[in-house]
Each structure stands twice: as C-alpha cells, then as structure tokens.
Design a protein that fits this description.
This protein is 47% helix and 12% strand. With 232 residues, it is an alpha/beta fold. The chain folds into two domains: 135 residues, Rossmann fold; 86 residues, Putative phosphatase, domain 2 (DNA polymerase, domain 1), CATH 1.10.150. It has a six-stranded parallel beta sheet, sandwiched between helices. Helix 6 links the parallel strand 2 and strand 3. The termini are close together.
Length: 232
C-alpha cells in the first residue's frame, strides 16, 4: 500500500483499541457472582450472551437516534434480567451502576493496540472520536494505559452530535485546526465510524478482524491493527 501523508489520525475507542467484549465479560462475570445469580438459576455464559445481544441492540438504537443514552443505563440490565426471569427493577439499576463503575477499569486492549499507538504517537497527533459516555471513556483510557497517546478526546456529549453524524467529525476538525483531507479515521463500525467519516470527507481505515463482507466504500481495510504500520 502506498502511504499518504496525513497531519492527524482519528481513532474510535471501543472495539477498535479498548477490548470492550473481553473487559465487559470480566466485569459481568464478577457481578454475576456478587449478585448470586447462579443461585437464582442464571448460568453465567447464558447471561453474557443475553447481555451482548441486548447491549448491541440498545447501542444501535442510540447510534441511530432512536433512544437517548439514559435509556441504555436505565433499561439495559432490567431487560437482561427479565430474560432470565428476574423482575427487580431497583436491583437492575444497582447492577447497572456497578457495571458502569467496574467495566471501564478493565485493562484489556485489542491485540497490537499498544504497540501501534507507540509507533504512531511520535509521528502524528492522535485523537479519539467516540459516542461513549465522557467520564467512562476517560477511565477506560487511563486504566488501559493509553490516555497519554492522545491529544484530544471528542465525545458525542462534547460535540453535541454523535457518530455517524458528520458534525461530530467536523467538530473534531475545527477543534484541532485540521482539514478533512489531512485526517484518516480508524474504526470497526461501518455505519458510525466509516460511514460518518466518509460523509465528513475523511479517508477511512475499516478495522474488520472478523472479515465481515460489506459494500461500504473504504480507503483502507485491515484485519489486524498491526497492518496500520504499512499504511501510516
């Protein structure tokens, strides 16, 4: 691949650098034990599968503007527990609080994330563009030891727009004195990361470790973060 000269790099955080699935599963296993769900007939693996499905559904609704963020925090675990015949809304709210507190403190990164950031950091200003909750994303980056690599973190709360809206990318460009032609966006989500960046006229790197077939227009596609060293 030929190398284009960029002035800065935008990264997504969850599923691109911070290993959401592994970290989330660790926290959920701990909470499954703390709340005695096994004694209530809830197998941990089934609980993890239910969470992953419902969490994905809710975030897709949020990303497409159909629900506010609060709905995720207030409804996510109630829906999960209901599927396992536990209808205790107050308990589900406490469970949610504990999850939101514990999960971001987990340290697992996507393979090669740390070494790639070490490689890129001396060469480019790096920026995070995320739809996640501001305070939680900050904890994730600090816990996993990557916060010092980034010049800025643009959240949907800060920008007043969320991916895939092109406005969040334009906000990040303005904040950092950049033009769209000077930046590449790296992310794992074809709609929010790649589609949104494309609408804002940014080049894109689609991180596709599962080799999902698609028709989306991308500038580059990689299955491992290590491949970024051949592009940038």
């Amino acid at each position: 691949m030929s190398r284009k000269q960029y002035r800065a790099i935008f990264f997504d955080l969850d599923h691109t650098l911070w290993d959401f699935d592994t970290n989330s599963a660790e926290a959920l296993r701990e909470l499954h034990h703390t709340y005695g769900l096994h004694q209530r007939g809830v197998a941990v693996d089934a609980f993890l599968k239910t969470f992953k499905r419902i969490n994905t559904q809710l975030w897709q609704l949020y990303d497409t503007g159909q629900i506010p963020q609060e709905t995720i925090r207030e409804q996510r675990f109630h829906r999960v527990l209901l599927e396992h015949n536990i209808d205790e809304y107050e308990m589900s709210l406490q469970f949610s609080q504990d999850y939101v507190s514990q999960s971001p403190q987990k340290k697992n990164l996507i393979p090669h994330a740390h070494s790639v950031l070490q490689y890129l950091h001396p060469k480019y200003p790096l920026h995070i563009i995320t739809n996640g909750f501001s305070e939680i994303q900050a904890i994730k980056m600090t816990s996993s030891g990557i916060v010092h690599f980034f010049s800025s973190v643009v959240t949907s709360e800060k920008a007043g727009h969320k991916k895939p809206s092109k406005e969040i990318f334009e906000f990040a460009l303005r904040e950092n004195g950049l033009n769209a032609s000077e930046v590449v966006m790296i992310g794992d989500n074809l709609v929010t990361d790649i589609g949104g960046a494309h609408a804002a006229l940014l080049d894109t790197v689609y991180f596709n470790p599962d080799r999902i077939a698609h028709q989306q227009k991308v500038t580059y596609e990689i299955t491992s973060l290590a491949e970024l060293k051949s592009i940038l």
